[in-house]
Structures are given as structure tokens and as C-alpha cells.
Amino acid sequence: MTGGPWADVRIRSTRFDLRPITETDVTPRYLGWFASRGASNITQHPASLDDLRTYVRDRSDRTDILFLAIRSADTGQHIGNLKLEPIDRALSGAILGIFIGEEAWHGKGVATETIGATAQWLQAELGLRHLWLGVTEDNHAARRAYEKSGFVLAPCPLIPARPGILTMALDLVPQKRA
Questions:
Q1: C-alpha angle with apex 147: 77 to 96, nearest 5 degrees?
Q2: Would 176 be classed as within a structural domain?
Q3: For residue 35, what pLDDT is reported?
Q4: What is the maximum span of the chain, computed from C-alpha positions, in angstroms?
Q5: Looking at beta carbons, which pairs linking 138-143 to residues 24 or more positions away fall under 8 Å?
Q6: Phi-psi category of residue 113: left, alpha or beta, with phi > 0 → left and psi -120 to 50 → alpha
Q7: Average pLDDT for consecutive 10-residue bins of the chain (178 residues)?
Q8: Which of 20, 123, 124, 175 stands the most exposed, by the fewest C-beta atoms within 10 Å?
Q9: Can you give the pTM of this predicted structure?
Q10: Is 53 part of any domain?
Q11: Is the residue at 177 inside a domain?
Q12: Cβ(66)–Cβ(87) under 8 Å?
């Protein structure tokens, strides 16, 4: 693997380091995250390590996808992933997906902290203005985390309306008040 167009990206927050995920991050532990109750809202689960490696590989060289491993800054443990897919420069935004696989980190503010750091980086480095996401109506914990990060219910030009799915948006550049 060449490292792709995002090979040098490093995003840091107080407790976490984010860097492009690689095939070396694909471990039995990572695959095991998909069997946890926290993965119930993920639509497609890899069946094997090879499937998961292929998924990572297929995203590594694309300029419209930034797929990051979330690691504990203290221990280096891979605890989850944050993905921007697609990054749409014409719309100046991206669709965000986040998955905290390590259950010991659930409810500890990982999403809020890593989304905040990523949002700052996206605005400063790529000039993006918007983040969007889709979340199931019944995923109350995720909705609370997204709201803490500043997301509000709003339509997304990249996510088609579907029953049971809410779309949320975060403006990365504060709107000027009249």
C-alpha cells in the first residue's frame, strides 16, 4: 500500500490521535467490534479479516475518502474509527461516520472530542464548511453525542431521505448574524 493521498494526516486532541487507517490496523480485535452490541447500527459487517482488509484497502488511495483510526494518546490502543465518505469539495462538506469499537470507551466522550478536533482540521486544512451524518432514530446515545458536538437536525444533500434515519448537520464556519 502506498499510504495514499492522506498518508501524512495527523489529527490530535487532548486524549486521542487520529491517523489514516491501514491494513496493519486490521486485527482480530478490530473484526470483533462488529459482533458487539455497539455495531448494531452498522449496515454491513465484514465476515472475515480478508473482507475487512479489502474494505480498508479500497478506501486508502481515494481523495474523496478520509478513513482514520482513533487511538488513545496514552496507550496507542486502536479504539475506533472516524470516516469521511465522501468528501465533496463542490458542496464544501463531507459525510461523517464514527464507530467506537472498544466498549470500555463507550460513554467517555470519544465521539465529541474526536469530531471536534476533526472538524477544526477539516475547516483549517481543507476549507470545508459542513459535516453531515445519518443516524437511526432510536440511537439515542449517538444522537446525544452528535448534539454535544454541535450537530442539529437538518437535511443533507448527499444522504437520501429514508424511513427511520435522521440527518444532521454541523456548520464548520459559524454563520454571520444579521
A1: 55
A2: no
A3: 87
A4: 54
A5: 138/164, 139/41, 141/106, 141/107, 142/41, 142/111, 143/168
A6: alpha
A7: 82 98 95 82 82 94 97 98 97 96 95 97 96 95 95 95 95 70
A8: 175
A9: 0.93
A10: yes
A11: no
A12: yes
Listed residue (50, 131, 49) closest to 95, CA to CA: 131
| Of 87, 119, 90, 115, residue with least CA distance to 100 | 115
Distances (CA, A) of 8 to 72, 111, 161: 18, 22, 35
**Could you tell me the three cell numbers for 100?**
467506537
In three-state secondary structure terms, 80 is: strand
| CA 27 from centroid of its chain's CA atoms | 19
Do the beta carbons of residue 131 and residue 172 sit within 8 Å?
yes
Instruction: Show the domain range for 86.
Output: 11-171
List the grid coordinates of 153. Answer: 437536525
What's the rounded Cα separation, in Å, for the pair 77 and 18? Answer: 11
**The pLDDT of residue 176:** 58
Domain count, the chain: 1
Cell numbers found for residue 151: 450537530
Distance CA(4)–CA(166), nearest Å, equals 32
Within a domain: 35 = yes
Question: Residue 1 has what pLDDT?
Answer: 42
- Domain holding 41: CATH number? 3.40.630.30
Cell numbers found for residue 120: 477544526
